[in-house]
């Protein structure tokens, strides 16, 4: 089983578990698709996407990080998964174990937690290809942007600080707020560069 990482600093893992985030965009990697390229057609075949661009001159096949229908573990630390810190933890594949789970590297860092040890899953229900700037307002909501109920035209995404303080990225439109978010997650200028992305729709798997 694979695992998928959502940004904790901006509360996106929590948004997935709350059911507010049901979509994610992943920038294409591998053979390059440049913003100036024009995709004519993009079809999903198994775990690959086949792209025809630039009037049929460019034909590119890229491997999908996650495929349609796949069930993927949501990456979380052992602490966030609700493991007992005082209980022993046995690691898989002969790696060994820890007399107490809180001693394991994965107690506070989800990078070190195996996919099969993560307790939450999502099911990929749709995959498509588009440019980042093509995101719709409804998709911004599906990506986890929140409407501030008290204000007519204000949207936000939380920022969780190590000190425990919470502040917010805000914008007057959904797209403006999402643009600020993607620049924080993927690097300044990401929104402006308008890369091609894989768009994944998913649903939380109920136990």
Summarize the structure.
The protein is an alpha+beta fold and 207 residues long. It has two domains: 160 residues, no CATH class; 30 residues, no CATH class. The two termini are 17 Å apart.
Could you characterize the architecture of this molecule?
- There is one protein chain.
- The chain folds into two domains: 160 residues, no CATH class; 30 residues, no CATH class.
- It is globular and about 60 Å long.
- The model has no long low-confidence stretch (mean pLDDT 91).
- It is built from five helices and 13 strands.
- The longest helix is centred in the C-terminal third of the chain and has 13 residues.
- It is 16% helix and 33% strand.
- The strands form four sheets. It has a five-stranded mixed β-sheet. Strands 3-4-5 form a three-stranded antiparallel β-sheet, with no helix packed on it.
- With 207 residues, the protein is of the alpha+beta class.
How many H/I helical runs?
Answer: 5
Indicate the radius of gyration in whole angstroms. Answer: 19 Å
Order of helices and strands: EHEEEEEHEEEHEEEHHE
Distance between the terminal alpha carbons, to the nearest Å?
Answer: 17 Å
By secondary-structure content and strand pairing, the structural class works out as alpha+beta
Oligomerization category of the chains in this entry: single chain
Biggest sheet, in brief? 5 strands, mixed
Placed side by side, the strands forming the largest sheet appear as 1-6-9-13-2
List low-pLDDT spans: none
Average of the residue pLDDT scores: 91
- The number of domains: 2
């Amino acid at each position: 089983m694979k695992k998928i990482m959502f940004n904790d600093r901006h509360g996106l893992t929590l948004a997935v578990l709350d059911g507010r985030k049901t979509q994610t965009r992943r920038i294409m990697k591998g053979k390059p698709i440049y913003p100036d390229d024009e995709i004519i057609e993009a079809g999903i075949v198994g775990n690959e996407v086949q792209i025809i661009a630039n009037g049929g001159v460019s034909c590119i096949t890229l491997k999908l990080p996650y495929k349609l229908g796949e069930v993927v573990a949501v990456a979380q630390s052992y602490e966030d998964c609700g493991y007992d810190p005082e209980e022993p933890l046995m690691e898989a594949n002969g790696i060994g174990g820890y007399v107490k789970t809180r001693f394991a590297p994965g107690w506070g860092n989800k990078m070190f937690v195996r996919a099969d040890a993560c307790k939450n899953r999502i099911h990929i229900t749709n995959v498509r290809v588009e440019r980042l700037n093509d995101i719709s307002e409804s998709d911004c909501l599906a990506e986890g942007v929140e409407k501030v109920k008290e204000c007519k035209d204000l949207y936000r995404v939380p920022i969780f600080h190590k000190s425990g303080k919470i502040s917010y990225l805000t914008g007057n439109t959904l797209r403006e707020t999402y643009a600020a978010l993607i620049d924080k997650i993927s690097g300044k200028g990401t929104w402006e560069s308008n890369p091609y992305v894989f768009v994944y729709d998913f649903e939380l798997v109920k136990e």
